Prior knowledge:
The longest helix is centred in the N-terminal third of the chain and has 18 residues, at 13-30. This protein has helices at 13-30, 43-51, 94-102, 104-108, 124-132, 148-152, 172-182, 188-198, 234-247, 262-271, and strands spanning 3-7, 56-61, 64-74, 77-85, 114-120, 136-147, 161-164, 201-207, 210-217, 222-228, 252-258, 274-283, 293-294. Helix content is 34%, strand content 32%.
Amino acid sequence: MGVVYRPAAPEDLEPALRIVQEAYNDLRSRHGLAANVGLRPPLFQRFCLAADPDGLWIAEAGGAPVGFGFAWMRQDFWYLAQLFVRPGTQAGGVGQGLLSRTLQVAERRGGAANRTLITMAYNTASQGLYIRNGLYPREPLLRLAAPAVVLEGRIASAGLDVVPIEPWPASRDWLGFLDEAVLGFRREDHHAFLLGGFAARALRIEHGGRSVGYAYISAEGHIGPLAVAPCADAAAVVTAAIRCALEGRPNQVSMVVPGQAERVLEAAAALGFRIEEPFVLLSAQPFGSWSNYLPSNPGFL
């Protein structure tokens, strides 16, 4: 199979996400999970393509797209958001070809202090690819979900105040400070993207007038990203976010919780959350305070 690699153009993004959907559902089916991954508009991909076109690549065979690689970089931190190859073409080195090209964005900027990604824990073939490229498993992540009707009967007040995040850029300083404390780098343009209408709700969580965290909530009731100040009670901050998610009357509430966030996992289990899907974070170097951060999803972090 002759494969051609080229930078992605805006018109490639919707076909690329169809490859993502097809490959993800195929993988889930092969591991006994429901093939229920839907197709969403490429909003974040368009945003990143406009900001940094070097990070998005298409693989083609016979003039048709067969793979999509998408990485973003903030400061000296490189993140692989998506790497998917159409089923039936996954053994031809296309994944390595796309990975090598997405890494070029780091090379053009003088290198990356760290490289990382999140993938499905059962995706052993991809983990082998990433390990061969110097990215190693660091942190288990669990997507949890609970029916809203169950949570409404169990959730209590966390004793914290919740207010909307100020419109961008008024919120730049405290969000950047919190990200640096928890993740080790700022991601200001990602906050600008979320605050520009991508998230249904954007929350500043306070205790005694002081910011102790932030949370974004989707219209479907998914919480994340969520960050907790190092000195704050992570379980209380997450509980406050769950209460706010329920105000939107979703069918369920979901979130991705790291294994190190023991108090959050304990509180979630008591509320009735159950594991929907396991993920794993891989990186070249350890980073982050994973008892204080809930990623949004594997593509956004």
